[in-house]
Design goal:
The chain is α+β, with helices and mostly antiparallel strands. The protein is built from eight helices and five strands; from the N terminus they run H-H-H-H-H-H-H-E-H-E-E-E-E. Strands 1-2-3-4-5 form a five-stranded mixed sheet, covered by helices on one side.
Length: 192
């Protein structure tokens, strides 16, 4: 047997009420929060540590305890995120169909091509450093997240920002190579 309990049911059971938000608003607030970093530990506290310190039992106890221990946190996070929402709101009217087209072309054409060239240049540079041959991945390799080989070692090449996007990270059976764009080139990080 199997039982699936939806998050909304858990929230209803534990907190008593569910806050409903208009369509798309949480996506905008999440994006604003990512940019403003409003719910980072330096603003709202390290939640995993705070919840360990909390000795109460109910949601009301938690609210009381948290606001007593972190009295400015909710307000500071709100201000940071709201300011970024305002920035996003002022940017939206500047976006027209032609800008969207240019963005899509840049993403699909330019960034894809440049990313592929980064990969080839990184593979070549690492192979020279290790005195091994390199080869780019086959389509079958690419389906497994492998971008190429240094000698017999499979490697996956990702931008450095990939490390911070844990929700996107898939399980890749290869040595990870990260790169960061610099003003005059790229910095490559690897450990093999």
């Amino acid at each position: 047997m199997e039982l699936i309990i939806k998050n909304s049911k858990i929230t209803q059971d534990v907190v008593g009420t569910i806050v409903e938000f208009p369509k798309y608003t949480t996506q905008i607030m999440n994006l604003a929060n990512q940019n403003a970093q409003g719910t980072r530990p330096r603003v709202v506290g390290q939640m995993s540590e705070l919840i360990k310190q909390f000795s109460g039992q109910t949601y009301e106890d938690w609210v009381s305890w948290y606001t007593e221990n972190m009295p400015e946190a909710i307000d500071e996070a709100t201000e940071r995120i709201y300011e970024m929402v305002q920035n996003l709101a002022s940017a939206i009217p500047k976006i027209d169909k032609e800008m969207v087209r240019k963005w899509v072309e840049d993403l699909v054409l330019t960034k894809t091509f440049v990313g592929f060239c980064f990969q080839e240049s990184i593979l070549k540079s690492l192979s020279e450093k290790k005195h091994l041959k390199y080869r780019v991945a086959t389509p079958q390799d690419e389906s497994k997240g492998i971008d190429g080989y240094i000698g017999e070692t499979p490697v996956s090449i990702k931008p450095l920002t990939y490390k911070t996007k844990s929700m996107l990270q898939e399980k890749i059976e290869a040595k990870m190579v990260y790169y960061e764009k610099l003003k005059d080139g790229i910095r490559v990080e690897y450990n093999f």
